[in-house]
Predict the 3D structure of the following.
Amino acid sequence: MSENRTAGWRSAARIAGIGAAASVALGLMSTGAANADTFVPLPDGQKVGPNVTVTRIGEHATISPSLSANGAGRTAWVSGKAIADVAVTPEGTVGPNNGPANGPGSNNSSTHGSSALSTGYLVGCQVNIADNAISAGVSGGIDLSGGSLGASVGLNLGPGEVKFVQINSKDILKAGTYSVEYQDVPIEINGCAGYAQARAYTVVEVIGDHYSKTTLYGQPFSIG
């Protein structure tokens, strides 16, 4: 009887020990979850313009908090694919590429002798990047200067600032289907102590006698 009781106590102790270990493990996982990356799925979109259909598919972002944990820095790893189905365009000749104009109303795009597809993100600090904010920016109410082109982008953003970040572009020399795909491109935000937002944009410019610019915006999402 005594041996049975002892064995029972030992079994209970072992079970209690396993439970305690499991509790510690769960506690550690909960602590780590606060600093984990956040995956943000984003909806596909499409817009039809003069002689062109612009589509965005497979867009998503992963938000990483700053390692310094000061709340002013974070990184958005963005992915997606922008597609332009162009029905009619003059063949054109690519001239000097002067890069994105970055001026009010430019939508961060620039013709340089040919039609073109460009895609990227608007990024703002303590600004809701909805349609009315974009309209304000186009009319000069928001600073849209300082965009960058490249595979890795670092932005210094103060309260109320919005900047274009161009991810990539492609010349369109004749009618057809063109696409730009990007995977886990890091956009690093520095200096924004408040909330930050981003929103994809894709611009297709068609040159010629009936020049057009068609812009497809994505869904705004939080960068923390």
